Amino acid sequence: MSNGDEHPGTGRRGYVGGVVRDALGAIRQLVSGLRTAFLALLVLILLVVCVLTVPLGVGLLATPAALRALHRLAGAERARLARFGSEVVAPEPPTDSPRAALRDPTTRRELRWLARHVVVGLPLGLLGFLLPILAVRDLTFPLYWRFVPADVTATSIGIGSSTSWADAVAVALLGVGWIAIILGLGPAMARAQAHPGRRLLAAGPETDLSLRVAELTATRAAALDAHAAELRRIERALHDGTQNRIVSVTVLLGAARRMVARDPAGAQELLERAQSAAEQALADLRAVSRSILPPVLSDRGLAGALTGLAAECAVPCRVDVDVPRRCAASVESTAYFVVAEALTNIAKHSGASRATVTARLTGGRLLLTVEDDGHGGATAPSESGDGGPGTGSGLAGIRRRVAAHDGTFRLASPPGGPTILEVDLPCGS
Q1: pTM tops 0.90
Q2: Is 407 helix (H, G, I), strand (E, B) or coil?
Q3: What's the CA gap between 283 and 120, in Å, rounded?
């Protein structure tokens, strides 16, 4: 809670920083939508060609392939939207049969999305790509206007020429206008680009959501399994480490008490051993408590905690964290565990010379990437958490923890490397 003596400039700086972050996030979202919009244009052209060539018989043969391309593109758009916001729940798998597609509600909704994404998403994506270029071009014009030929237009919109400093400054003011458009309209443009996909690609009321219910049931089971595994780990750590050391302290103190009268020197030695065992038990107890919820997360936040993990890693590790606000404590704890396990695996098994940890907060989701230049060959555990050859319990534990948050886990580790671990977690508040 802030008090009344807080400097007013702090709130203004926070507001301006939030506006800038939202605008940059919107530009990234618009540019990512440009790719799917361009592919949507190609798929739309393919479908139109199939319809026009049906009388020749070619269209009937090519339509199943075109429908599969449509369904894959719709799936890619759902995944893209999930990276920048809430998850878009997929409906039942649609059909590839041309006749059944005419009656399939999912295919009809995807076709409507395809047309709207081309009409709306493609121009907005182009704007998201061009506006930053136009802003930089016009804003920096005073730096090079003297080198521009007199018959070349000065502005990025193709009108006007520059013959004086006043003209150059006027062009720079146009660049300021582009920036104002990005800051003021960028988020709205990103929402407009995403709206057709969120409305038409999500499961409709007529869709059977049994698959999603089964997925959430499996997620709940994974959460319970992860919780039980964590309790077993804590119990083993307390039983095998701390408890044994405390028993040793008790035995040593009893022996020292019996020897204190007849052998003071021997009793002193036993007391020193008891003190050493007590200090070690305290260290073990602190280690267990830190593994439950590391205090560094509360003290320094996720950025500081990940920086600390990188500093302790045996492999040189670079950290790049852009998480401007706090996530839920359980999400931060899971992120910390994921990076800790990944760096431990890198140090033990990868043979890497360097590693990189990246954390981004985008659209309400925390995106983690851990990459190393090792020899690769790591195998992702199965959905059930069972590892295959080359799979350690660390990766299985990561998958279970991520599944408990309804997140996604991806591992790419071809022989020869590099190994890239990606985790996507919904960032609750």
Answers
A1: no
A2: coil
A3: 60
Give the chain's length. 429
Contact 428, 327 (CB under 8 A): yes
Distance CA 29, CA 298 (A): 31
Distances (CA, A) of 281 to 81, 130, 293: 49, 62, 19
Q: Which residue has the tokens 């003021």?
A: 184
Q: Give the percent of the chain with pLDDT over 70.
A: 78
Structure tokens at 239: 């039983």
pLDDT digits (tens, 9 = 90+) for 80-117: 888 887 777 777 777 767 677 777 888 888 899 999 99
What mean pLDDT, rounded, does the chain reach? Answer: 79
Neighbours of 36 (CB within 10 A): 23
190-246 confidence digits (pLDDT tens): 999 999 998 888 876 555 556 556 666 666 666 666 666 666 767 776 777 777 778
> d(Cα 346, Cα 351) in Å, to the nearest integer?
7
**Contacts for 153 with CB less than 8 Å, ≥ 6 apart:** 159, 160, 161
- Residue 389 C-alpha from the chain's centroid: 27
Confidence of residue 7 (pLDDT cuts 50, 70, 90): very low
